[in-house]
Specification:
Layout lengths: L3 E6 L5 H13 L3 E6 L3 H4 L2 H8 L3 E2 L12 H7 L3 E7 L1 H8 L6 H8 L4 E5 L3 H5 L1 H13 L2 E2 L3 E4 L5 E5 L3 H12 L23 E6 L4 E4 L2 E3 L6 H12 L3 E6 L11 E4 L3 H11 L5 E4 L6 E3 L18 E3 L3 H8 L5 E8 L3 H11 L4 E6 L11 E2 L2 E4 L4 E3 L3 E2 H15 L5
Parallel strand pairs: 1-2, 1-4, 2-3, 4-5, 5-6, 9-12, 9-14, 12-13, 14-17, 17-18
Antiparallel strand pairs: 7-8, 10-11, 15-16, 18-20, 19-22, 20-21
Helix pairs in contact: 1-3, 1-9, 4-6, 5-8, 10-14
The structure holds cytidine-5'-triphosphate (CTP).
C-alpha cells in the first residue's frame, strides 16, 4: 500500500494537535495532503499545514488551481487512508447525512479509501444522541472511529471529548499500513465489484433460532449463520441496502449491513413481516426451528421422575408466509438443507413455498454442513434452471449465487 494520506482537519481547538500528527507522518515518509474546513482555518493557518506537509493545503472546493484536474476528486483519489483529526460534531453529522458543502466533506463523500475519524468536542456535545447516533451510523457503514479520551477539555469541562494524542493516532496509522489493524472503505465501489445490486433492498435471515423451554434452557440447531452473513456481505458490497435478521450468532455484522437480532422463530417471523413489504429480495438462509416447546415455564424446571416428555408445537413458517404474500416484483430465495433426495425435496419446497430460487445442500456431505466455512450447493429456479456449484468458500459462493440470481432475473431492476 502506498504511504499516501489525506489528513482532514475540521474546526476545533484540537486542530493544533494535527500539526504534530502531520509532522510525525512526514518524518516517517508518508506523503500527506491536508484538507481543512473553513472553520479549521480559524484555529490554525493553512500555511502551518502547508509548511509541515510540504504540500498545497486544500480549503476551498472552488479554488481550482490546476486546470488539468478537478481538485476534490483528485484529492479523494489520492490516499490509501483518510484521517480526520479533529472530527467535530458538525463534520460527523455532515458525513452521516451525506452532506458535502465544503472541501473536506466533499472529499469524504468522493473518496473510496478507508477513513478514520478522531472526534473531539465538548463532553455534552459528545453525549448528545444526535452525535451518538451519527457515530453509530458511521461505524455501521465501516468508518473507523478513534474514540475521544477522558480528561480536562479546552472548554473547561472534564469528561470524554478530548482528541486522542497525535502519537496514538500515528500509531493507529502505522498499524493500518502494516496490516495490524483492518479498516475497510465504507464505499463499496472501492472493492472493484460491480454495483449491480445498487438500489435493491434485500432482506436476509440467518443463523439458528432458539426456542426457550424455561429461563435457562432452549432448543436450537447447529447453524452458525455463515452462509447468510456471507450473502449479506456480498450483497452489500455490490451496492444493495441489506437488512439482516439474525438468530443468535457469534459473527460480527458485515459493515454497512443493518442487523436485527432475534432469538425465537416467532421473533424472526415478526421482524420479517415488518420489513418484507419494502424488500425487493428476501433470502431465507436461517435454520428456523420447525417446532417450539408448547409451554414456556416461567420458572426453571426442576428434575422430576425418570423421563420427561416435551410437547412441541409448530412455529410459523416464515418463508412460506412470505411466499403467500409475495408481490409480483419480489424475489424469494430459500434454502433446503437435506440429508437425502436433495433435488426432489428442494424442488418440492420451491413450489410449496412459492419461491423463485432455492439453494439446496446435503448437510451430511463433508465440507457442506452446518458451521463449515465451505459449502457445496445446488441452485434451482422456478424457471427450471439448475446449477451445481463446486465445493467452495461460503464468501466466494455468496457472490456466485448472487450472479446467478441476477442473471436468472434478467436485468437487475
Ligand atoms: N424456513 C422459514 N421458517 C420456518 C422454517 C423454515 O423461513 N419456520 C425457511 C428456511 O429459512 C429455509 C427453508 O424455509 O429457507 C427451509 O425449508 P423447510 O421446509 O423448513 O426445511 P426443513 O425444516 O428442513 O423442512 P422439512 O422438514 O420439510 O424438510
Amino acid at each position: 500500500m502506498e504511504k499516501k494520506i489525506v489528513v482532514g482537519v475540521s474546526g476545533g481547538i484540537a486542530a493544533y494537535k494535527s500539526v504534530t500528527l502531520v509532522s510525525l507522518l512526514v518524518k516517517r515518509g508518508y506523503e500527506v495532503r491536508v484538507v481543512m474546513t473553513p472553520s479549521a482555518t480559524k484555529f490554525v493557518s493553512p500555511l502551518t499545514f502547508q509548511t509541515m506537509s510540504r504540500n498545497r493545503v486544500y480549503t476551498d472546493t472552488f479554488s481550482e488551481e490546476d486546470p488539468g484536474v478537478v481538485s476534490h476528486i483528485d484529492v479523494a483519489d489520492f490516499p490509501s487512508l483518510v484521517v480526520v483529526a479533529p472530527a467535530t460534531a458538525n463534520l460527523l453529522g455532515k458525513v452521516a447525512g451525506g452532506i458535502a458543502d465544503e472541501m473536506l466533506s466533499t472529499v469524504l463523500l468522493a473518496t473510496t479509501a478507508p477513513v478514520l475519524f478522531v472526534p473531539a468536542m465538548n463532553v455534552h456535545m459528545y453525549t448528545h444522541p444526535a452525535v451518538q447516533e451519527n457515530l453509530q451510523r458511521l461505524r455501521r457503514w465501516g468508518y473507523g472511529i478513534l474514540e475521544p479520551a477522558e480528561g480536562l477539555l479546552a472548554c473547561g469541562y472534564t469528561g470524554k471529548g478530548r482528541m486522542e494524542e497525535p502519537e496514538r493516532i500515528f500509531q493507529f496509522i502505522e498499524d493500518f499500513f502494516q496490516g495490524r489493524v483492518f479498516l475497510k472503505s465504507p464505499n463499496p465501489a472501492s472493492r472493484g465489484l460491480p454495483q449491480d445490486l445498487a438500489g435493491k433492498r434485500i432482506l436476509i435471515t440467518a443463523g439458528p433460532t432458539q426456542e426457550a423451554l424455561d429461563p435457562v434452557r432452549y432448543l436450537t440447531n447447529r447453524s452458525s449463520g455463515k452462509m447468510g452473513y456471507a450473502l449479506a456481505r456480498a450483497a452489500r458490497e455490490r451496492g444493495a441496502e441489506v437488512r439482516l435478521i439474525s438468530g443468535p450468532s457469534t459473527l460480527l455484522p458485515p459493515s454497512g449491513v443493518e442487523r436485527i437480532s432475534v432469538r425465537s422463530a416467532e421473533e424472526m417471523y415478526a421482524q420479517v413481516m415488518r420489513y418484507l413489504p419494502e424488500a425487493d429480495w428476501f433470502i431465507a438462509a436461517a435454520a428456523v426451528a420447525d417446532y417450539r416447546p408448547k409451554v414456556f415455564e416461567t420458572q426453571k424446571m426442576k428434575k422430576k421422575g425418570e423421563s420427561l416428555l416435551l410437547e412441541l408445537v409448530p412455529t410459523p413458517d416464515i418463508l412460506k408466509a412470505a411466499g403467500e404474500r409475495k408481490r409480483k416484483d419480489q424475489i424469494l430465495i430459500g434454502f433446503a438443507a437435506e440429508t437425502e433426495h436433495l433435488e426432489a425435496y428442494a424442488r418440492e419446497k420451491l413450489l410449496k413455498k412459492n419461491l423463485d430460487f432455492i439453494i439446496a445442500n446435503n448437510v451430511t456431505e463433508e465440507g457442506a454442513g452446518f458451521d463449515s466455512d465451505t459449502n457445496h450447493v445446488l441452485l434451482l429456479s422456478k424457471r427450471g434452471e439448475r446449477k451445481d456449484f463446486p465445493l467452495m468458500e461460503k464468501t466466494s459462493l455468496a457472490h456466485l449465487l448472487l450472479d446467478e440470481i441476477i442473471k436468472g432475473q434478467g436485468e437487475p431492476k
